[in-house]
Design goal:
The structure is a homodimer. Chain A has 2 domains: about 5-75, Homeodomain-like (Arc Repressor Mutant, subunit A), CATH 1.10.10; about 75-200, Tetracycline Repressor, domain 2. Chain A is built from 11 helices and no strands. Chain A has helices at about 5-10, 20-35, 45-50, 55-60, 65-75, 90-105, 110-115, 125-150, 160-175, 180-185, 190-200. Chain A starts with 5 loop residues before the first helix and ends with a helix.
Chain lengths: ~200, ~200
């Protein structure tokens, strides 16, 4: 029995209308399997099982499991964006909320694994750099506005602010014992506020 | 062919002097395999291959792969300890250096995976809590001394300071593109100093 080559499979799908709902389900399943088991446990078979589709449905759409994972992450692990709220506190809070969404929301495990496993998966390091660049870009815009307003000294470090903000969110979430997870979810707004207040202290001119 | 039960294996080792060098090599291999492939890729077979020993040597010493992993992590992922250096800056720098050692040293991948995969592995969540408790204990002692000296306000938050210090280290290390890793390793002392200086700003009374 000889399976069709990847090329044939891709060719076989030409012109056939694809069901976007199935695409979406497979991409979500890819993110979930990666989050749960990492790259070592990531296979087309486990994604198919999780999505409730046959392996052929996946091979029709993706040539390799690397592409499958990268597309899933691109669709469901969103980069942060800059928000100009008019104040440094407002800007930092908006950024912190997005980071909380990224690292404590439904894609939590996948987002954390991305950073950890980036060196092992072809193409993933580039995708991580894109996420990071989006964070740096947002943080840089905020710092620039803060300096213009006189809320920040000229020589404020964008990366220190971002590392402590982003890292503070990650450390807070990762350090939660499992039996307290619901309490932590409920307290994330308060945590975000306290974190920003604390970091604003370090940025006083 | 029937393999001897775990009980028989354990029994067979009674009274036989064990080679501590082999124990050490297996424990190191367990940490390396877990760091590389996570729990999904962790097997007695892969640890045996990495350590250059037979699977039987592992089964003689450990009844389950959970115990093998937990013992390896206990031996090679050390909790931080408090250091009273006489100043808040000195204390925080000493703590930050230990965190850098933990998250950027040879056990980097394993230490990060511990936190990420704790909920999946029996006994690992407890081990993570112990590491976390050691961090909280050290940070609490530093903050208490800082308050006594008048370097810190009475209501300073131990957890915010720890989350931003520890998280800042993790974020800095995780956000490094692979091609810059050598430069980051070389700059860790400077980073630690800058991070502590930045956070000291937030703790000004």
């Amino acid at each position: 029995m000889s399976a069709p080559s990847h090329h044939d499979r891709a060719h076989a799908s030409t012109g056939r209308p694809r069901d976007p709902e199935v695409d979406r389900r497979i991409a979500l399943a890819a993110v979930a399997v990666f989050g749960e088991a990492g790259w070592a446990g990531f296979s087309v078979e486990s994604v198919a099982r999780q999505a409730g589709v046959g392996k052929a449905s996946i091979y029709l759409r993706w040539e390799t499991k690397e592409r499958l994972l990268l597309d899933g992450l691109a669709a469901h692990v969103a980069p942060v964006v800059d928000a100009d709220t008019g104040s440094l506190r407002g800007d930092l809070t908006a950024l912190a909320r997005q980071l909380v969404e990224l690292y404590a929301g439904p894609s939590r495990q996948a987002a954390l694994r991305m950073m950890l496993e980036a060196p092992m998966i072809p193409g993933l390091a580039e995708r991580c750099d894109e996420l990071r660049q989006a964070q740096v870009k947002a943080a840089r815009a905020m710092v620039r506005r803060g300096i213009r307003r006189g809320d920040l000294p000229d020589d404020s470090s964008v990366t220190l602010l971002l590392d402590t903000l982003c890292g503070g969110v990650i450390a807070h979430i990762l350090s939660t014992p499992q039996h307290l997870e619901d309490a932590v979810q409920a307290g994330l707004d308060e945590f975000t506020e306290n974190l920003v207040g604390f970091l604003l202290g370090s940025t006083r001119p």
